[in-house]
Design a protein that fits this description.
The complex is a heterodimer. By secondary structure, chain A is of the alpha+beta class. Chain A is 25% helix and 13% strand. Chain A has a domain of 118 residues: Alpha-Beta Plaits. The longest helix of chain A is centred in the first third of the chain and has 15 residues. Chain B has one domain. In chain B, a hairpin with a 2-residue loop joins strand 1 and strand 2. In chain B, helix 2 packs across helix 8 and helix 5 runs antiparallel to helix 7. The chains are: A alpha+beta, B mainly alpha.
């Protein structure tokens, strides 16, 4: 019975004298390696040269602020639930009077931590977020010398007011997806 | 004459020693660069411009590594192994003619440390001594994998020495001398031995690859299969000595191939340039080193082209192909050199 047409008949034919010598084959191989000698190297010397990263690349996360500079995140925990790698942990807190310029709604995340060693950069957190608070950016997570430094707290995740992170490309992509 | 000759030879020994070590060190750099180019990469480029200080950094690293002698190892032999490997590697450079004669103040000096009349035999003696370095190193480590690696390496070297010796016998039949200097002088201008002994050269080159434990015959080490073969237990500069000895062996066998089969310091039209003898000698040495560098490059080129042999394939090639071929080569050479006598004997 033949299931597919992909099976190949094994050739057990005796090698000819020229093939047994191996030398013609070796010369051919040498020609191939020599042709590679003059080819342009494929190397990208990383810290000096960076390869193109798409604007919708899923890299380091950012916690967004609204137009007034207040944090969007309400510590609902949907991102942590959605996270397949269980990389996100948070502690919620209630907003005190006078903190309206800091947090958009009555509840906010007092502690928000993402373990970048656990994170698989799947982007399910940003899909789960109902407040458009968390986004992935084209920035890469660098390497560190110990594991503690990979746990990113709010100090590293929340975007600085004076240095807003542009995620319009990502938002557009999400809007299209939701429609 | 005596004292000047002594001074000249001492300087020559120092120069050759330095050149050998420098070339061996830069072979490691060259190997990495050539490997990179053959694989569409760029290779080491961080230490100095184009990474030319890489060998210095590697050597420095080797010195700073912890010196480990395993508790169960035989300490004396454990140190003796790499020393022997290095010693035998450096000893062979003595009989290689690095150039013709220089005339200084009316005295002729030969650019060869010593012209032994049994030069070829001397090299074979020293090279077969090199097996001891590997065998002692592997055995004294008191590690079964080191011992297995050492046994593989020595079985390989001993097997290929036979075919190498037989391929040289045919060369000696045509040249009629064992002195390497005389062999080189016979190949003046373009009468290189490769033209008379192509099969012999092929066998010699394959055996040289096996003798140097170079790919495709690097079964002794085979980084990708064994941990490290005979030098598994070695660390620090003792490991460095083994690796360094390998590169020196490669340099010396390249020099040997260049002088036995590719005319040494001879190059076409060397006598019709109308230059002073000293200049021809210097130019000849440059040409000789060019040939040597080509062979070193060829060693590396082959390494990244041909995959490693299996052990049984290696032994079959050595014993069943190369040795019969070498004997056939001796026979053909004999018939060719005695063709007049044979003609007389057959037709008269």
């Amino acid at each position: 019975m033949q299931l597919t047409n992909r099976s190949k008949v094994v050739s057990n034919k005796k090698m000819s004298f020229a093939e047994k010598l191996y030398l013609p084959a070796i010369v051919k191989g040498l020609a191939i390696t020599m042709s590679h000698f003059f080819r342009k190297p494929a190397t990208i010397s990383y810290p000096e040269e960076k390869r193109y990263i798409a604007p919708v690349w899923r890299g380091k996360h950012v916690l967004k602020r609204d137009a007034n500079g207040a944090e969007n995140c309400t510590a609902c925990g949907l991102c942590a639930v959605a996270c397949p790698a269980e990389a996100i942990t948070m502690t919620a807190a209630e907003r005190k009077p006078g903190e309206e310029h800091l947090y958009r709604e009555e509840k906010y995340a007092a502690v928000y931590e993402i373990n970048m060693l656990r994170c698989i950069f799947c982007g399910l957190c940003e899909e789960a977020c109902p407040k458009e608070a968390i986004f992935l950016t084209p920035e890469l997570v660098p390497t560190y010398l110990n594991r503690e430094e990979f746990i990113y707290g709010k100090d590293k995740l929340v975007e600085p007011i004076d240095k807003r992170v542009d995620i319009t490309q990502r938002q557009k992509h999400l809007v299209e997806k939701k429609q | 004459m005596g004292i000047e000759l002594l001074i000249f030879k001492s300087i020559l020994v120092m120069v050759i020693f330095t050149i050998t070590l420098t070339i061996a060190a830069y072979s490691t750099y060259g190997e990495r660069k050539i490997a990179a180019f053959l694989q569409d990469r760029i290779g080491p480029n961080r230490s100095g411009p184009f990474g030319i200080f890489q060998p210095v950094a590697d050597g420095g690293k080797m010195f700073l590594k912890e010196e480990i002698i395993p508790a169960d190892a035989s300490a004396f032999l454990f140190v003796l192994g790499p020393s022997l490997a290095m010693l035998t590697a450096l000893m062979t450079g003595v009989v290689i003619p690095w150039g013709d004669t220089l005339t200084l103040n009316g005295v002729e000096y030969s650019l060869q440390i010593t012209d032994l009349n049994i030069g070829v035999l001397y090299i074979f003696g020293v090279v077969s001594f090199g097996v001891y370095g590997i065998m002692i190193g592997g055995w004294s480590s008191n590690n079964k994998f080191s011992l297995l690696g050492a046994i593989r390496a020595s079985a390989q070297m001993i097997s290929y020495e036979l075919a190498m010796g037989l391929s040289i016998v045919a060369l000696i039949m045509t040249t009629g001398t064992l002195s390497i200097k005389e062999i080189v002088d016979q190949q003046a201008t373009w009468h290189w031995n490769i033209l008379y002994q192509p099969l012999g050269f092929l066998i010699f080159m394959i055996c040289a690859f096996a003798e140097c434990n170079r790919a495709p015959f690097d079964l002794a080490e085979c980084e990708t299969e064994l941990v490290g073969g005979y030098h598994t237990e070695y660390s620090s500069m003792k490991l460095g000595f083994y690796l360094f000895a390998e590169y020196i062996n490669m340099f010396i066998s390249s020099a040997l191939m260049a002088s036995l089969y590719f005319g040494g310091y001879n190059f076409p039209f060397m006598n019709s340039l109308g230059l002073d003898q000293n200049w021809v000698t210097i130019l000849g040495s440059v040409v000789f080193f060019g040939k040597v560098f080509f062979f070193i490059f060829f060693f590396m080129w082959i390494r990244w082209t041909i995959p490693r042999f299996r052990y049984d394939q290696l032994m079959r090639l050595g014993w069943q192909s190369l040795i019969p071929l070498a004997i056939l080569n001796i026979l053909l050479t004999g018939i060719f050199t005695m063709r007049e006598e044979l003609k007389n004997w057959l037709f008269n």
